[in-house]
Design a protein that fits this description.
Largest sheet: 8 strands, mixed
Number of helices: 7
Radius of gyration: 16 Å
Low-confidence stretches: none
Shape: globular
Helix content: 25-40%
Strand order of the largest sheet: 1-2-4-3-5-6-7-8
Strand content: 15-25%
């Protein structure tokens, strides 16, 4: 499921943002940050606004500072959803855009990228997906030969059946105010995972926050920043535990 919430608070895209740089990995332009000598890597899969979002790259830099080599691929091949359509975004154009930008395509493109990282000596990889990117992340999480752990933040398009198929430790961070994956749906995800004790899992619903709060928050709103940073720490803690 998707809707106007996916388009709210669009970022001002900036290809020069972040302390890392862009390079080609497995044929994909990718923002990379952190030590390329690290044996631990994290894949960040963007929401519909793509890999040039400054707050997304800021999080990538934060994860890199914790010791991971971080890759944020451009799974939209230069055609991310426009991020300059005002505070509520151009939600009427979203269904048309989505027809040619399917998360499953990103998950397929991620596989050779993950193989490329392994060929460079990376021994463990985590993936975190945001909104649209969460669906791509959960698809990759169905292959334990590619991934060691996954985090889904305010997921879109993710279904209960997805959690019946995941094979790696998975964390779901949901928002209390989210028409895309409302708390009752997130609790259904949790119920499925509870029935699969062999898969380590963590499910958390953040109160008083909206869909997109982890990477599309108002940096001048102290409360919003605090909630986002709490989620960021949860992401890091999950990878500290399972990507090692």
């Amino acid at each position: 499921m998707s809707g106007p919430a996916c388009c709210s608070n669009p970022p001002a895209l900036n290809p020069a943002s972040g302390s890392g740089h862009v390079e080609k990995l497995a044929g994909l332009d990718s923002y990379v940050t952190g030590s390329p000598d690290s044996k631990l890597a994290v894949l960040l899969i963007a929401d519909i606004f793509g890999y040039e979002a400054p707050l997304l790259r800021k999080l990538a830099d934060k994860v890199a500072a914790a010791g991971f080599f971080v890759v944020v691929p451009d799974f939209f091949y230069g055609d991310a959803f426009p991020g300059d359509a005002g505070p509520v975004g151009n939600s009427s154009a979203l269904p048309i855009w989505l027809k040619t930008h399917l998360p499953i395509k990103a998950s397929e493109a991620a596989k050779p990228l993950l193989e490329a990282l392994k060929s460079k000596g990376v021994s463990a990889i985590g993936a975190v997906g945001f909104c649209w990117g969460a669906k791509a992340a959960v698809e990759v999480a169905k292959y334990d030969d590619l991934l060691h752990a996954a985090v889904l933040c305010h997921p879109s398009f993710v279904t209960v059946d997805d959690f019946k198929a995941v094979k790696v430790p998975i964390s779901v961070l949901g928002a209390e105010i989210d028409p895309i994956s409302p708390p009752d749906v997130v609790k259904q995800f949790e119920e499925v995972l509870t029935e699969r004790p062999e898969i380590k899992s963590h499910v958390k619903i953040f109160p008083k926050v909206q869909h997109g709060w982890t990477v599309r928050y108002n940096a001048e709103d102290e409360a919003a920043v605090k909630c986002a940073e709490e989620a960021h720490q949860d992401i890091l803690d999950w990878f500290f535990s399972h990507v090692k």
